[in-house]
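Hi Y.,

Following your request, here is the sequence exactly as I used it, all 530 residues.
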Amino acid sequence: MRPFADQLRCDRCTVAAAPEGTFSSSTVTCPFIAFLGGQAGCGQGAYPVVRFGCQASCVATFILIWDGSESGYAEADFAADVATTGGGGVVAGNWSLGNRRHGMSPGDRVFLLRQGTDRGIVAAGRLTDGVITVEPHWADPTRTAAYTDIEWDRVLPVEDRLDIEDLLAHMPHHWNNIMGSGQELQPPSDAALQALWEGHLTALGTGGSRWTLEPGQTLGRRARMEGFGGAMYGGIQPSSSSPNVFVYSDPQAGTTYGYNFDGWNAERTVFLYTGEGRSGDQRMRSGNAALFNHRDTGRAVRVFVAAGTEEGSGAKVQRYLGEFEVSADRPTLTAEAPDQDGVQRTVLVFRLRPVGTVLRRDQDVSAIGDAPARPQAGTVAVETAELPVGNAEAVPIEAFSTGEYPVAGSTAATAVKREAELVTRYKTYLEKGGASCVRYKLRPPGELRDLFTDLVDETANVLYEAKGVATREAVRMAVGQLLDYSRHMPSTPDLAVLLPALPTADLRDLLSRHSIRCVYEDSNGVFTVA
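Below is the corresponding structure, written out as tokens. Let me know if you'd prefer a different format.
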């Protein structure tokens, strides 16, 4: 800024300033003077000014260069800056200026151009004070480089950059001739770049508006897609146009495929969410990977639950629970569930922790509950009708009359369980001798699936596994089940298999080597220990 006898004029544009009262309602405040607050330059920031063909901005615009390397902008710092500015914050930084040693002022606009691979503008900000300092070079301490302080107001994930092809399409004469950091972009290109950047942010859904939806409010998928990006359908929708991963939970849909892990744990401190993938084992890729890596990409996790349908259209209503993050401790669990073809497979279950205020409702509690971090045990009376979810608890013996039982995790399928009648007969036999018989429901640590024993004689502390046949396959399976179950019992039991006939000598030897009793029912209905 430089003063004149009859008026003041900005060095960087044709804005003239005059004493208050010279101009009427047509007078405006020069952005450059307003930013300085009358503390620098001509010192006349308090005077109203009038524009005579002023550019869109009275400040200079500079292009800073990042070679894309870790040493130039550490990955962890970059991800943190993406997250902070994506949430409306400002990040203080310091950047090298190449050969520039003067010509910068407070409030000047800067854009960060990533070179090498994935070229494009990834950040924008303003100079803090315009002071240039000479310090050791960021990559070679034997050299020196010029630096200045910056406040970044927006840092984008690399995949969301203002791509070099867009820059070349709109401003073809600049981007292949920038050889070093600190190059000034002259008018009218500076205004063109600012307009292009603002349009890019608007297209990403990250322009002037920030996330304003409150927990408990509803937002349709189409409205979310149009405002904040992400695809229309699917359970996990990472957005390339806003710093968000959208997660949709619908327990009713989950039960169609035989699982229903989604929902709050009992304490309402963790929200469980089943990963995507309807066929085969779920893997950490696509949407699952986007959710798991949300911190690294600077994205917030925003969880919605199905809340009925819209009247007339039938479209599902999605209720916003709030912002979450993948738990730092035990971020995922592995559970077993059938896929869309009914084939048993493993699924990923994410453990999401609330960030700030979220909606916690009883109807959103998981039917399965969280996985225990360590083994726990607790028993309840056999006659108890409703049992609390625990890790080891006694439950009533099944009294089957049909020889069939519903298979958990299928949609109406039943399986023949011939050993059910065998268990019922042996239970009667034991109780006549004064034994107390129960079953145990077990929840192994770190898992979401309950395991059910066949029979436990609590009086003698014996765990039985029954099989409907005495084949090698059945006996081998029983051995594995007994060894598995016994690890989670409240006290270490003796082990026994219950069979409808005497197995071969070799199988009896197998059981003996593992200290497992063999109880069988002979043709006269008498139970004998082999």
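Residues 2 and 42 are 6 Å apart (CA to CA).

Thanks again,
Q.
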